[in-house]
From TrEMBL:
This is Riboflavin-binding protein. It comes from Stylophora pistillata (Smooth cauliflower coral). InterPro entries: Folate_rcpt, Folate_rcpt-like. GO terms for molecular function: riboflavin binding; riboflavin transmembrane transporter activity; signaling receptor activity. One of its GO terms (cellular component) is external side of plasma membrane.
Length: 287
């Protein structure tokens, strides 16, 4: 096999290729009567394989709730310690709410949070019912773990956060004899000047909700689901047990996205796999 001078454009291509990290030569094959491309060094393909490996290990940011707050005016930009919390003290080490916000949850009877009334039937909630309402409010406003269940369509809200069945059942038992005039507290009130008023009759909670499951899955729309395992604890003292839950669920979702590459979180895995399928045979061919 002997070498001949290359056409100018071939020389330009080879010069460009050297800058990309691999060495290529066009050699004239006398037996075949044509130029043949010979790859002598392929660092570029090694780089691609390194990229493939790194992409396969990228964790999905969408699955990591720990260390972030829900966006919007109801939450801080990022969690930080709050030393003067009047309520929600279980979240003081990494809080998404300010100490100032918690003051309105600290002194019963609590009639409203901001402009939102908890007592549209003009009757204060019982002490035990109010305590459960406060715990739910503290989770939504103060917990950095709430971000894990961020609603993709309304990013300052949550969706399908799993609440432990025992908490839901206790919440229903505590509030069943209290009064309300709405089943879904997001959609079933009449809003006037930013204040929620009744548009349905005042009845006991037990008339609007059948049980703890119904209460948890209805009062705040699709925010919560009733679960017996792998669920959020609302009533706790530090350390926060929900940190471990979010870490566990995050790892499970990350693994699932790699095994079943669908949706946004698995795009990198699918792309990396495609690259590997294309480049591995090329490496075998060139070497």
């Amino acid at each position: 096999m002997s070498s001949l001078a290359l056409p100018a454009r071939f020389a330009e291509i080879l010069e460009e290729d050297e800058h990309k990290g691999y060495k290529a030569d066009f050699i004239f094959d006398c037996d075949k009567g044509r130029f043949v491309l010979k790859i002598r060094e392929t660092m570029y393909t090694i780089t691609v394989l390194a990229l493939v490996g790194s992409l396969l290990t990228i964790p999905s940011a969408a699955h990591k709730g720990h260390g972030k707050c829900l966006p919007g005016a109801k939450h801080k930009e990022s969690p930080s310690a709050e030393e003067s919390m009047a309520a929600c003290k279980s979240y003081k080490d990494a809080s998404c709410c300010t100490s100032d916000f918690t003051r309105q949850l600290a002194t019963p009877p609590i009639k409203k949070v901001g402009n939102f009334s908890w007592t549209p039937c003009n009757k204060t909630l019982s002490t035990k019912c109010e305590a459960f309402m406060v715990m739910v409010e503290c989770f939504y406003r103060c917990s950095h773990n709430a971000y894990f269940w961020k609603n993709p369509y309304f990013t300052s809200a949550i969706t399908k956060a799993p609440v432990c069945s025992g908490f839901c059942d206790g919440w229903f038992d505590a509030c069943k004899d209290d009064l309300t005039c709405a089943k879904n507290w997001i959609t079933d009130f009449k809003m006037e000047a930013g204040v929620n008023n009744c548009k349905q009759p005042c009845k006991n909670f037990s008339d609007y909700y059948a049980n703890g499951k119904d209460l948890c899955e209805s009062m705040w729309g699709a925010s919560f689901v009733y679960k017996k395992t792998n669920c959020l604890q609302m009533n706790f003292t530090s350390p926060n047990p929900n940190d471990a839950l979010v870490e566990k669920l995050s790892k499970e979702k990350q693994f699932s996205s790699k095994v079943h590459p669908t949706g946004e979180s698995s795009g990198a895995v699918f792309f990396a796999t495609s690259l590997a399928i294309v480049w591995i045979p090329l490496i075998a061919f060139f070497y």
